[in-house]
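Our consortium's second objective concerns turning raw sequence data into structural hypotheses that experimental partners can test. To show how far this objective has progressed, the report includes one record in full. It was chosen at random from the queue rather than selected for favorable results. The single chain below, 258 residues long, was entered without modification.
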Amino acid sequence: MFFNYLKIVWSLSISQFFIYRLTSVFVCFFGVLFTAIEVITLFVLYHYTDSINGWDFYSFLTLSATYTLISYIYQFCFTLSHEKLIDKIVEGELDYDLVRPIDSQLINSIKQFDIPSLINIVIAIVLLCFSVPHVLTGHIFGIVMYILFVLMGVYFYYLVNQFFINFAFWIERPYQIAAIPEYLLDIASRPRNVYPPILHILFVWVFPILLSTNLPAEILRGDFSVVTLVYFLLFIILFSFLVRIQWKQALKKYQSAN
């Protein structure tokens, strides 16, 4: 049943893409532009130095491309759905989704795909194809682990967004708090060892947003820590339970417009 639902969502998303072609073109253009600016900035920085805190040009480019990949996979799968979810919570229009045979959190997480984001996903993959051969140490195993932890990074970013969106059930004006995850992910676009010790502790061991992007890149470089790897996996498992419990409790606060 869920796969049939995904087919319907895909068809509707394609239709929306062609209906709003001009908007989609602008979204693609600015996405490509921002990625190009990031790459050009790296070229300029490494014109004057060979290494930044132990990260050479290709390692930093791999991290930057990983950040872009995680960000736009999330955007492709969940962003539009999460935006609609906030509106539905505020306007009290969740009734129909709560009685459908598919889990209410799941169905409200995947309502529409952001088709223009596919362009940026492809660009990130192209950048990785350019940079990874210069940093890869584990060959096939490293690539498999990289893909796994990129997906874990996407899932972690989904959980972070879902966590803040759930507060819309309690807060009258939730749109500002729902924007916090975007700022958090921006922090993760840089190597974790460039941050001061207090921020490193905060964003690695307290709330490991830095690990979501840094771990995949470190796996390719072969300098990852097993301790941080296991900690990140355990944190995601516990965070998943927390977000799920939060959703269940939040539904008790839901007020229907009807």
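The partners drew two points from this record. The chain is about 75% helix and 0% strand. The longest helix spans residues 57-91. Both points have been shared with the crystallography group to help prioritize constructs.
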